[in-house]
Amino acid sequence: MLNLLLRLVATLPLRAVHAIGGFLGHVVYWLSPTYRRRLNENMELAGYTDAATRREAIAGAGRQGLETPWIWKRPRGDLIARTSVEDMRLVDEVMADGRPVMFLPPHLVASK
Fold first, then answer.
1. For residue 102, how far is the Cα from the chain centroid?
2. 46-101 per-position pLDDT tens digit
3. 5-23 burial code (b ≥16 CB/10 A, e <16)
4. Are the C-beta atoms of 7 and 17 separated by less than 8 Å?
5. What pLDDT was estimated at residue 112?
6. C-alpha neighbours within 13 Å on the C-beta side of residue 105
7. Buried (b) or exposed (e) across 72-111, using 16+ Cβ within 10 A?
8. pLDDT value at position 110?
9. Model confidence at 41: pLDDT above 90
């Protein structure tokens, strides 16, 4: 059942994944007092006290959570098409010894 749900997420456009994820981030924030307390404490420790930044952090966490299954279940070609590398020479050097390279982007950006 979980695998089916993950595959369903992967069929959605990335913009939809981000919208749903942002909504779910807010749901989790309001349903989990522990998560809410920790997020608020961490935001304050980092010096972010404004409500707009807090809302964006809440939504961003939800987007990131839903991006993960989207990435895992998308065809490889779709992901490669969305990837850009600023210094391909560096990638070539790292891959020269035959070991694989894993790219870990902080977030995907939906195409405009």
1. 16
2. 999 999 999 999 999 999 999 989 988 999 898 888 878 888 898 888 889 888 87
3. eeeebbeeebeebbbebbe
4. no
5. 44
6. 14
7. eebeeeeeeeeeeeeeeeeeeeeeeeeeeeeeeeeebeee
8. 59
9. yes
